[in-house]
Amino acid sequence: MRFPRHRRITTRRDFGRVRRQGETYRGHFLLLGVLQDDSLPDLKIGYITTRRLGNAVARNRIRRRLRGIFQRLGDRLKGGHYLVVIPRGAAANASSEALEKEWKWLAHRSGLYQKKQK
To answer: Which of 25, 27, 95, 118 is the most exposed place for a label (fewest CB within 10 A)?
Structure first.
């Protein structure tokens, strides 16, 4: 299943805005850039995987894992944000469970989780 285009950051300008104006949260495996934009009805997310992570197979594997994590947990996150996820070198050897645990921790730390309704 493809990741819907309306949920992706596609322009260099938007990646740059998140980098310049947003906040960055650092973990052992991931960097999470967050920029609030109230004009967005939903979240937009982009992934930056550099060659430092390994060859194309390794980079694509990491992107697939991160997309899967976001698809499982994305409905719990607040809308109106741009997110940029940058895997660090250690992410290439990390398990999916470790990546998901760190993703949850970074999302919690950045205040992206919605409050549960009773």
So the answer is: 118
pTM for the model: 0.87
Residue-number span of the structural domain to which 32 is assigned? 5-109
Provide the domain count of the chain.
Answer: 1
Is residue 28 included in any domain, yes or no? yes
Q: How confident is the model at residue 97 (pLDDT cuts 50, 70, 90)?
A: very high
Residue 117 lies in a domain: no
Mean pLDDT value of segment 73-85: 88
Contact predicate 74/42, CB 8 Å: no
Between CA 59 and CA 62 the distance in angstroms is 5
- Give residues with Cβ within 8 angstroms of 22, minimum separation 6: 33, 34, 35, 36, 82, 84
